[in-house]
């Protein structure tokens, strides 16, 4: 398939560098700086051979075709070795290698080692050198197809989008990811990233985003990511957390229908909290409602976090009675 | 529509008490193995690896078992005379991650003077960018991890005056997300490991005031799963190293008690390897020094009596931080 060139290499019979006539002039440098192995990784003779010669060329600063090939073998054996990648870039620059070819090579390498910092960084440097981010969206998409929360891929994608202004179509892409996995927190975060960096959260956008999110919550009501996104949206509502009528009605209807999602109850608690703080509406009623919700959460719906809910009940209890200053310190253990 | 939560199930026959002796043996064996090949292939992360192993041993009250003079010679030889930075091992380029690890080790052994301290300070300062952020090395990768490494290193050396702290804080502030968490860069997804880095950074710079304390603490609490373990992001599996990052973050926010410590303790105990010693990311996986350190450090924060008290900001023994006279901010 697409990674065929590397498979070919591994299928060919491996010849140690020490047995290669064209490497006779290089002095291999064995590792000899102590005896404390720190982390166990399966060892191979091939590994020692390659790295002895890598240290050899590093010492003489040889920048040649064969040295380039050697860094490829070294990187294959251990893609996390940051020195190998740095030296490889030195060689690429010195030999003025075709950067497109290198981009293709790193594409294959990232596919195999997609959680490694160094390979992604190598790609970023190449894209910067080429000053062309046109392949990055397709590329990161292909990585996200196998792991839709890969932090490196998302980070690289955001970097490329920001650097080369590639926001078009991104919300559709995010939507397609959320249709596959509605709980994909990375996709929800990306939604925020795009809106924030393009239209911003204007009243119209905010209203649309709230509709979108409430729809998603209707599909999966225990979805932490969607509830968090909703809270993020409400940060942009000038009225605050508890005054958006669409959200308030949605939450009340959901509660009255018998739903007891911990995230729903948590938002209702925070709405009560805000009403008490602002002194708007019936403060006493809001306080009692909030405290009751906290008790429900602590004893039934989110028992593993009962300490948090006890703290919130305590906070609400003290609020509006003139002792709110005291409540933060009294519960710390 | 109920979707099963991504989590693990703890086995009935799991270890339930701390296997302290076995963990110490596990680490010592790694350091003393005669197998040079294993040693050779891990050179790219050796300095950090040594920090994990030595700190784990120290927390177990077993530091003296590994007092070796060649350790200090080795660290000294990893300092690049030109840039002043410290590399993972010989034949590698200096990097901020390993610079911090080296400084942490030397502070623990009270041997910091063997380094060219001015060189280290110059190196760290040289990595600060115009926007206040830090790159990890001369190749310029930016990440909030490196902001933490920079201020942790400089504060241990008492040289915070060598960087623009206000600008550094401003950069961290731009990485704060709508859910209260922090990511690697502005608007990157919140991630428990990076939250620890940012809170550790703010603890050292005494600026925890910029955090949305209870919003973030609640997000962190949400990381606890029914197994008791903590994950690093929503819908991810629990992992011992994330348990430490979430727990230390909660400690810095003064909200450690919001999660169930009994459940977390059970989870970490279950990740111990009863035969070889050491702790792994999840029950049944292969143990390594990295997860061994973070498992022990988490148990220390939970108040486990046979383990030395760990400092939540530096992940070093509290007695070392006290000896240095450092008082990183912790919210009450
Ligand atoms: Zn882990």
UniProtKB/TrEMBL annotation, chain A:
InterPro entries registered for this protein in UniProt: Prenyl_trans_a (IPR002088)
Cofactor(s) needed: Mg(2+)
Highest taxon listed in the record's lineage: Eukaryota
GO molecular function: CAAX-protein geranylgeranyltransferase activity; protein farnesyltransferase activity
Regions crossing the membrane: none
Top-tier EC class: transferase
GO CC terms: CAAX-protein geranylgeranyltransferase complex; protein farnesyltransferase complex
Keywords: Magnesium, Prenyltransferase, Repeat, Transferase
Enzyme Commission number: 2.5.1.58, 2.5.1.59
SUPFAM superfamilies, A to Z: Protein prenylyltransferase
PANTHER family: PROTEIN FARNESYLTRANSFERASE ALPHA SUBUNIT/RAB GERANYLGERANYL TRANSFERASE ALPHA SUBUNIT, PROTEIN FARNESYLTRANSFERASE_GERANYLGERANYLTRANSFERASE TYPE-1 SUBUNIT ALPHA
Family named by the database record: Belongs to the protein prenyltransferase subunit alpha family.
Protein name (record): Protein farnesyltransferase/geranylgeranyltransferase type-1 subunit alpha
From TrEMBL, chain B:
GO cellular component: Rab-protein geranylgeranyltransferase complex
Domain Prenyltransferase alpha-alpha toroid, first and last residues per copy: 18-316
Gene3D superfamilies associated with the record: 1.50.10.20
Cofactor binding mode and count: Binds 1 zinc ion per subunit.
The keyword Nucleotidyltransferase belongs to this UniProt entry's keyword annotation: no
CDD domains: GGTase-II
Keywords: Metal-binding, Phosphoprotein, Prenyltransferase, Repeat, Transferase, Zinc
InterPro entries with a match to the protein in the record: PGGT1B-like, Prenyltrans, Ptb1, Terpenoid_cyclase/PrenylTrfase
Cofactor(s) essential for the protein: Zn(2+)
Pfam families per the UniProt record, alphabetical: Prenyltrans
Gene Ontology molecular functions: metal ion binding; Rab geranylgeranyltransferase activity
E.C. no: 2.5.1.60
Recorded catalytic activity of this chain's protein: geranylgeranyl diphosphate + L-cysteinyl-[protein] = S-geranylgeranyl-L-cysteinyl-[protein] + diphosphate
Top-level taxon: Eukaryota
Subunit structure: Heterotrimer composed of RABGGTA, RABGGTB and CHM; within this trimer, RABGGTA and RABGGTB form the catalytic component B, while CHM (component A) mediates peptide substrate binding. The Rab GGTase dimer (RGGT) interacts with CHM (component A) prior to Rab protein binding; the association is stabilized by geranylgeranyl pyrophosphate (GGpp). The CHM:RGGT:Rab complex is destabilized by GGpp. Interaction of RABGGTB with prenylated PTP4A2 precludes its association with RABGGTA and inhibits enzyme activity. Interacts with CHODL.
Family indicated by similarity: Belongs to the protein prenyltransferase subunit beta family.
PANTHER family: GERANYLGERANYL TRANSFERASE TYPE BETA SUBUNIT (PTHR11774), GERANYLGERANYL TRANSFERASE TYPE-2 SUBUNIT BETA (PTHR11774:SF11)
Known role: Catalyzes the transfer of a geranylgeranyl moiety from geranylgeranyl diphosphate to both cysteines of proteins with the C-terminal sequence -XXCC, -XCXC and -CCXX. Catalyzes the transfer of a geranylgeranyl moiety from geranylgeranyl diphosphate to both cysteines of Rab proteins with the C-terminal sequence -XXCC, -XCXC and -CCXX, such as RAB1A, RAB3A, RAB5A and RAB7A.
Protein name listed in UniProt: Geranylgeranyl transferase type-2 subunit beta
Organism listed in the record: Popillia japonica
């Amino acid at each position: 398939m697409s990674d065929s060139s590397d498979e070919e290499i591994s299928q060919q019979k491996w010849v140690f560098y020490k047995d290669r006539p064209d490497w006779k002039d290089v002095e291999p440098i064995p590792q000899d700086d102590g005896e404390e192995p720190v982390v166990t990784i399966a060892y191979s003779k091939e590994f020692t051979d390659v790295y002895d010669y890598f240290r050899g060329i590093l010492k003489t600063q040889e920048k040649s075709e064969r040295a380039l090939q050697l860094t490829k073998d070294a990187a294959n054996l251990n893609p996390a070795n940051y020195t190998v990648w740095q030296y490889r870039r030195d060689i690429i620059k010195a030999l003025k290698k075709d950067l497109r070819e290198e981009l293709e090579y790193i594409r294959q390498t990232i596919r195999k080692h997609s959680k490694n910092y160094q390979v992604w960084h190598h790609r970023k440097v190449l894209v910067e050198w080429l000053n062309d981010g046109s392949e990055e969206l397709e590329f990161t998409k292909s990585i996200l197809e196998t792991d839709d929360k890969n932090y490196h891929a998302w980070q690289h994608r955001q970097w490329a989008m920001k650097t080369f202004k590639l926001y078009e179509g991104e919300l559709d892409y995010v939507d397609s990811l959320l249709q596959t996995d509605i709980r994909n927190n990375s996709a929800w975060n990306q939604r925020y990233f795009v809106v924030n960096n393009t239209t911003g959260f204007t009243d119209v956008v905010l209203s649309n985003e709230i509709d979108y999110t409430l729809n998603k919550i209707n599909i999966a009501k225990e979805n932490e990511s969607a509830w968090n996104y909703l809270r993020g949206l409400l940060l942009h509502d000038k009225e605050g957390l508890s005054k958006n009528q669409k959200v308030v009605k949605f939450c009340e209807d959901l509660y009255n229908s018998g739903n007891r999602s911990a995230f729903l109850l948590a938002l209702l608690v925070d709405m009560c909290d805000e009403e008490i703080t602002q002194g708007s509406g019936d403060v006493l009623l809001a306080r009692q409602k909030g405290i009751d919700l906290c008790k429900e959460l602590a004893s039934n719906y989110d028992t593993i976090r009962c300490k948090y809910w006890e703290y919130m009940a305590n906070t609400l209890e003290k609020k509006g009675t003139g002792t709110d200053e005291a409540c933060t310190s009294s519960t710390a253990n | 529509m109920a979707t099963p939560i991504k989590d693990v199930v703890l086995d009935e026959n799991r270890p339930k008490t701390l296997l302290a002796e076995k963990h110490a043996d596990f680490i010592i064996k790694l350091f003393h193995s005669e197998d040079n090949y294993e040693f050779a292939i891990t050179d790219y992360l050796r300095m950090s690896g040594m920090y994990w192993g030595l700190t784990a041993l120290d927390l177990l009250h077993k530091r003296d078992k590994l007092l070796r003079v060649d350790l200090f010679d080795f660290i000294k030889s990893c300092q690049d005379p030109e840039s002043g930075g410290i590399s993972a091992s010989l034949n590698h380029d200096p990097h901020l991650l390993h610079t911090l690890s080296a400084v942490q080790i030397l502070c623990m052994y009270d041997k910091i003077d063997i380094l060219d301290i001015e060189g280290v300070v110059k190196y760290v300062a040289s990595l600060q960018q115009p926007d206040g952020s830090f790159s990890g090395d001369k190749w310029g990768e930016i990440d909030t991890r490196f902001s933490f490494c920079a201020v942790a290193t400089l504060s241990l050396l008492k040289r915070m005056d060598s960087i623009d702290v206000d600008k550094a804080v401003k950069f961290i502030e731009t990485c704060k997300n709508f859910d209260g968490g922090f990511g690697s860069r502005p608007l990157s997804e919140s991630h428990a490991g990076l939250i620890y880095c940012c809170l550790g950074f703010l603890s050292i710079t005494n600026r925890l005031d910029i955090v949305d304390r209870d919003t973030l603490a609640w997000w962190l609490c949400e990381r606890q799963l029914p197994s008791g373990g903590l994950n690093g992001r929503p819908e991810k599996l629990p992992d011992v190293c994330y348990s430490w990052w979430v727990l230390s973050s909660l400690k810095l926010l003064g909200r450690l008690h919001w999660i169930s410590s009994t459940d977390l303790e059970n989870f970490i105990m279950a990740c111990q390897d009863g035969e070889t010693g050491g702790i792994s990311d999840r029950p049944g996986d292969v143990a390594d020094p990295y997860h061994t350190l973070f498992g022990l450090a988490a148990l220390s924060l939970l108040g486990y009596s046979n383990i030395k008290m760990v400092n939540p900001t530096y992940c070093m023994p509290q007695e070392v931080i006290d000896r240095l006279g450092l008082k990183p901010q912790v919210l009450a």
